[in-house]
Amino acid sequence: MSRPGWETAADLVVVGSGVAGLTAALTAQRAGLRVVVVTKDTPDAGSTLWAQGGIAVVLGDVVGDSIAAHLADTVAAGGGLVDEHAAGRILTAGPDAVAALRGEGAVFDGHPDRLARTREGGHSALRVVHAGGDATGAEVERALLAAAQREELTVLAGHAASTVLTGPDGGVEGLEVRDDEGRAGLLAAPAVLLATGGVGGLYETTTNPTVATADGWALALRAGAALADVEFVQFHPTALYVGASSRGRAPLVTEALRGEGAVLRDTGGASVTAGVHPLGDLAPRDVVAAAITRRIGDLGAEHVWLDATGIPDVVARFPTVAAACAAIGVDLARDPVPVRPAAHYSCGGVVTDTRGRTGVPGLWAAGEVARTGLHGANRLASNSLLEGLVMGRRAAEDVAATLAGPRRLTEPEAPAPMPTTIADRAVLQAAMTRGAGIGRDAAGLAAASDAVEAASTDRVPATRADVEDAALTLAAHALLAAAGSRTETRGCHVRTDHPLTDDHWQRASATVVLRGDRLHVGTTDARHGGAA
């Protein structure tokens, strides 16, 4: 066994500094735990900062709305795979979670006693609270980082988590991290909470920032935890189209624009969603994204148009979108906006229960990296920030309760450097975009797997980029394996060679586990959670 360059100890190590990670870290520290937050870039570099739409929550002041209605909308969007028990518990905890966030100093639009609301796709009521018009995530991140500073929370920036360390009994003993040059450090801890965000880096174009490289999926798989529902990658219907050669993060054009009356039209001026769904442009995201993709393909176009010119004071209401549009010469108040789908959100992830526990003792997960059962086969708009708030808090409370009992005394050692499979990122992203985007078939999935394998080498990760590329490689194979096993169309998993939904044999979540160096796909009953 090798020794790292430095070592320290904590009760809980939180990996990630977005809404779920900071909520968990603050909750745990206030419970008396020694907490270290690890983030591989600056603390505000994750996806939370970029969330535009808002937080879907029932606060009891909208006539006709209820937790039951919010749950019904969530289940309807989730394509038959929502765990209704877990979803109900998360949504019910929403009002307290938002109140706690406001207690940290977050300021939402509207009067303090009656917040402003908007509606997004799949929602039957005005229940989405927002901040700064379309800058909700930025306000959430600002408030949580300010709270972290007030609480003197220890944040280790510029370090990527490379390995969750486990002992002979399989329980967590700590975390190995590496800086940008690959120098290793070790944090000894009986508890690790993964809050690493999403997997947008699997694709050439995404609404995610560059740090979203599936790190949590890889960390969990290698530690012995299961993933589920990873084939369900939600493509946001309306990312700003900035040109045919664009790569990386595409600016998001929030769904709230359509909630306020913006309409989707193709390049010939016809409605994109007429006759597709009763909710039209406010149908669930998988429906709208698929409709846009089909229309682009039928017309041989590069994008469709989102016309928001009829919304009063649209620039003031949506300043973030307006600024992104202005950067490409589009006036949001006067011009239609060119949009097309882009990889946006992972509906699946590390399997957890409603306390954030994985199947590995000492390992918790919360936020987008986790699969609680709330999203099923397709996430309802603006349920993500809510889940991060609720589950970050719950996971931390469970960690504190667990560590209040007897503890194992351990002295973890960093593993000896071992070669791992690392694919060329550009080749991987191109292969995943072609074969595992919107509209998949067996041949395309197999070709993507072959391309990733052919572009891979086995070597010891030497830098942060190597750690990220190793995570992307493992995550790509996990997603492709799950997508290949689901021979039906459900939610945001569209199989062009299997266009029908099979509720008799395939209404269950596919799980992925790593045994040795091989991934294995199984099933679990989505109504009860857990892994096969």
Keywords:
alpha/beta, 532 residues, disordered C terminus, five-stranded parallel sheet, five-stranded mixed sheet, globular
Task: Write a concise synopsis of the structure shown.
With 532 residues, the protein is of the alpha/beta class.
Average pLDDT works out at 93
Q: Let me know the number of strands.
A: 26
Question: Level of helix content?
Answer: 25-40%
User: What is the rounded distance between the termini?
Assistant: 33 Å
Rounded radius of gyration (Å): 22 Å
Principal-axes geometry comes out as: globular
| Structure class | alpha/beta
Largest sheet: 5 strands, parallel
Q: Low-confidence segments, ≥5 residues, pLDDT <50?
A: 526-532
Report the portion of residues in β strands: 15-25%
* DSSP helical segment count: 14
In which order are the strands of the major sheet placed?
8-3-2-12-21
Provide a descriptive summary of the structure in words.
The chain has helices at residues 19-30, 67-77, 84-92, 94-103, 136-150, 215-223, 256-259, 285-299, 314-317, 319-327, 383-403, 425-435, 442-454, 464-485, and strands at 6-9, 12-15, 35-39, 55-56, 110-111, 114-115, 128-129, 154-157, 159-166, 172-179, 184-188, 191-194, 205-206, 227-228, 233-240, 248-249, 263-265, 304-307, 337-346, 349-351, 363-365, 370-371, 420-423, 456-459, 509-515, 518-524. It has a five-stranded parallel β-sheet, sandwiched between helices. Residues 526-532 have low confidence and may be disordered. The chain is globular, with a radius of gyration of 22 Å. It has 14 helices and 26 strands. By secondary structure, it is an alpha/beta fold. The protein starts with 5 loop residues before the first strand and ends in an 8-residue tail after the last strand. 31% of the residues lie in helices and 21% in strands. A hairpin with a 5-residue loop joins β9 (159-166) and β10. α1 (19-30) runs parallel beside α5 (136-150) and α2 crosses α3 (84-92).
